[in-house]
Amino acid sequence: MPRVFFMVKYEEVEGRLICYFEGRMDTANSTKLEDEVFDHVLRKRIPTVFDLKEVNFVSSAFFRICIKAARATKEMKLTIINAAPFVKDGFKITGLDKIMDIQ
Fold first, then answer.
1. What percent of the chain has pLDDT over 70?
2. Which of 50, 42, 43 is nearest to 8 (CA)?
């Protein structure tokens, strides 16, 4: 069975928390990362950006992480950048583009 690679790195840049996701954000991987990501977002309480440049798959579990982060940063709005077209479509189909800034 091939090893499935996924990770997230965090960096604070110019007053924003940037979360760099990499790999498959399927249900299993997203579930493993959910608490960690949410802890970073809650701890910082600053505008948050999810960079999805290196993400090659997303599941509804990953959308759940995005929803939780968007609610936590409501006043500042969560920003999604560098998402593949199929991921952007998922945000639009689910209506999540109304509560997040999808670039």
1. 95
2. 50
CB within 8 Å of 13: residues ≥ 6 apart:
none
Listed residue (14, 15, 56, 18) closest to 37, CA to CA: 18
Dihedral over alpha carbons 8, 9, 13, 16 (to 10 degrees):
30
- So what's the pLDDT on residue 5? 63
Summarize the confidence of residues 16-44 as an average pLDDT: 92
Q: Which domains does the chain have, with CATH numbers?
A: 6-96 (3.30.750.24)
Amino acid at residue number 51: D
pTM above 0.85?
A: yes
Write the Ramachandran bin of 95: left for phi over 0, alpha for psi from -120 to 50, otherwise beta: left
Alpha-carbon gap, residue 16 to 50, rounded angstroms: 10
Q: Residue 7: name the closest of 27, 23, 26 by CA.
A: 23
Element counts in the chain: helices (H) and strands (E): 3, 5
